[in-house]
Design brief:
The structure holds two protein chains of two kinds.
Chain A (H helix, E strand, L loop, with lengths): L3 E4 L2 E5 L4 E7 L6 E7 L5 E8 L4 E4 L2 E6 L4 E6 L8 E9 L2 E4 L3 E6 L1
Parallel strand pairs in A: 2-11
Antiparallel strand pairs in A: 1-3, 3-8, 4-5, 4-9, 6-7, 7-8, 9-10, 9-11
Chain B lengths: L4 E3 L2 E4 L5 E6 L6 E7 L6 E7 L2 E5 L7 E4 L6 E5 L8 E8 L10 E2 L3 E5 L1
Parallel strand pairs in B: 2-11
Antiparallel strand pairs in B: 1-3, 3-8, 4-5, 4-9, 5-6, 7-8, 9-10, 9-11
Classes of the chains: A mainly beta, B mainly beta.
């Protein structure tokens, strides 16, 4: 059974810092991996999708990597801003459905 | 089309009542998914449709839950005889799907259910 784990559960950083969020999964038989952002009480916003054959995806200040063989993905956020404060979720796609981690709650202090 | 929409956004009901939620996917998407999210947890898969066909249901989807997508467009999720444990955010997502199962899923704003 696929299990997705995100570390740390919560993170607080000063504005301007670069940071890395971690995601690990137990079964490497995945189609892709998505990173999402969720603001309190809201739905999910897709940030990046990495196909199983890819190693990296970039969008603006965000960079996501995927190492399928070791069951790991990282989300790198450059020059963090207070507006980046949210919960970040990773999810692996198995057979079309997403299996999520519990998320990392990020707080960026001005 | 601005994205996936869900209605209502919030629902408060008494235990034992039936509730129905609606999801309208992005218009050209033929796959539609339902997930449930409780406080402090990641979303959990409930079920998904390819056009009007329901292809998979999670064991989380008890007999009190039923989902439909009658014309392959919008979908409804009904919960009968609600229990306090049903209180959660119900999220809908859609994707292009078809033969390509690895398409990006886009989520709606969710329906927050509170069972008193």
């Amino acid at each position: 059974k696929q299990e997705v784990t995100q570390i740390p559960a919560a993170l607080s950083v000063p504005e301007g810092e670069n940071l890395v969020l971690n995601c690990s999964f137990t079964d490497s038989a995945i189609y892709n991996l998505q990173w999402f952002r969720q603001d309190p009480g809201k739905g999910l916003t897709s940030l990046l999708l990495i196909q199983s054959s890819q190693r990296e995806q970039t969008s603006g200040r965000l960079n996501a990597s995927l190492d399928k063989s070791s069951g790991r993905s990282t989300l790198y956020i450059a020059a963090s801003q207070p507006g980046d404060s949210a919960t970040y979720l990773c999810a692996v796609n198995q057979g079309g459905k997403l299996i999520f981690g519990q998320g990392t709650e990020l707080s960026v202090k001005p | 089309d601005t994205g996936v929409s869900q209605d209502p956004r919030h629902k408060i009901t008494k235990r034992g009542q039936n509730v129905t939620f609606r999801c309208d996917p992005i218009s050209e998407h033929n796959r539609l998914y339902w997930y449930r999210q409780t406080l402090g947890q990641g979303p959990e898969f409930l079920t998904y449709f390819q056009n009007e066909a329901q292809l998979e249901k999670s064991r989380l989807l008890s007999d009190r839950f039923s989902a439909e997508r009658p014309k392959g467009s919008f979908s409804t999720l009904e919960i009968q005889r609600t229990e306090q444990g049903d209180s959660a955010m119900y999220l809908c997502a859609s994707s292009l799907g078809g033969l390509a199962v690895n398409n990006e899923q886009f989520f709606g704003p969710g329906t927050r259910l509170t069972v008193l």
